[in-house]
């Protein structure tokens, strides 16, 4: 099959118009007319991920985070990021990214996170006009948990050593929870206004955290890498599409690389 067939199916599931205006989603590198057989899903496209793709004879990397947030100023191949681009071209690997469009899509990133966080009666936190897509999700726990207990659950779920908790009372009971994958600190007022009792998001800013305490709200920050949950879910999607469309792919699998830049001590 050709890369453009997979790209078309991705964009039907996570339409480009759902993405933020400045988000560099879509085809990152390669020829959409190229024949592909092996697909690898990834959270980030980093040099170690590309080396894995080369070793495993991958033709198509389906990533969540765009490969190129900032354009290269030169093609000096002594720069690891530039060398990565050259390696991808040399080995004919197509790279495609679905980022904020996948975040907002129905059945996309934030629905996966809401499900993993055991939320029920889920709806978009900041809905689009269709009521089905939009930024973040909000829902309820079947059984209330304390801030401390739920923070431990979140920590273990996303397999991080620690989570950052912003709360005045660790023993407060929580039932209605909002979540926004990635950097969602600027949207915490929307979670508060929607009636959430806690908000799970990442990269929370120090001074904004003081505002959270002043509002007597709760935030649990488990690290941006929580979005790695997408790797296996994307594999499931591509395999489903393969069955539906009779695609002749030889393998679809998730990258084994942990691209979290943080070490907790």
TrEMBL record:
What SUPFAM superfamilies does UniProt report for this protein, alphabetically?
NIF3 (NGG1p interacting factor 3)-like (SSF102705)
Which residues does a divalent metal cation 2 bind? 64
Q: Binding of a divalent metal cation 1: at which residues? A: 65, 103, 224, 227
Annotated InterPro entries:
DUF34/NIF3, DUF34/NIF3_sf
Q: Give the molecular function GO annotations.
A: metal ion binding
Query: Ubl conjugation among the record's keywords?
Result: no
Which keywords accompany this UniProt record?
Metal-binding
**CC per GO annotation:** cytoplasm
Keyword Metal-binding appears in the UniProt entry: yes
Q: How does it assemble?
A: Homohexamer.
Entry similarity comment: Belongs to the GTP cyclohydrolase I type 2/NIF3 family.
Q: NCBIfam families, alphabetically?
A: YbgI_SA1388 (TIGR00486)
Q: What is this protein called?
A: GTP cyclohydrolase 1 type 2 homolog
């Amino acid at each position: 099959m050709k890369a453009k067939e997979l790209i078309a199916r991705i964009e039907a599931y996570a339409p480009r118009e759902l993405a933020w205006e400045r988000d560099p989603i879509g085809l990152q590198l390669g020829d959409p007319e190229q024949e592909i057989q092996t697909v690898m899903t990834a959270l980030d496209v980093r040099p170690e991920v590309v080396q894995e793709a080369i070793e495993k004879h991958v033709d198509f990397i389906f990533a969540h985070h765009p490969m190129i947030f900032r354009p290269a100023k030169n093609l000096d191949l002594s720069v690891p990021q530039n060398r990565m681009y050259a390696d991808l071209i040399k080995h004919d690997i197509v790279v495609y990214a679905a980022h904020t469009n996948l975040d907002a899509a129905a059945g996309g990133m934030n629905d996966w996170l809401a499900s993993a966080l055991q939320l029920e009666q889920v709806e978009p936190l900041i809905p689009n006009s269709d009521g089905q897509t939009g930024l973040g999700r909000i829902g309820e726990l079947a059984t209330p948990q304390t801030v401390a207990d739920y923070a431990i659950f979140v920590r273990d779920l996303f397999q991080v050593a620690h989570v950052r908790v912003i709360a005045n009372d660790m023993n407060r009971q929580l039932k209605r929870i909002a979540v926004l994958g990635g950097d969602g600190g600027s949207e915490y007022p929307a979670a508060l206004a929607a009636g959430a009792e806690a908000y799970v998001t990442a990269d929370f800013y120090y001074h904004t955290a003081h505002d959270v305490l002043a509002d007597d709200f709760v935030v649990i920050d488990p690290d941006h890498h929580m979005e790695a949950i997408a790797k296996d879910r994307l594999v499931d999607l591509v395999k489903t599409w393969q069955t539906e469309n009779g695609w002749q792919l030889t393998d679809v699998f998730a990258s084994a690389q942990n691209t979290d830049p943080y070490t907790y001590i």
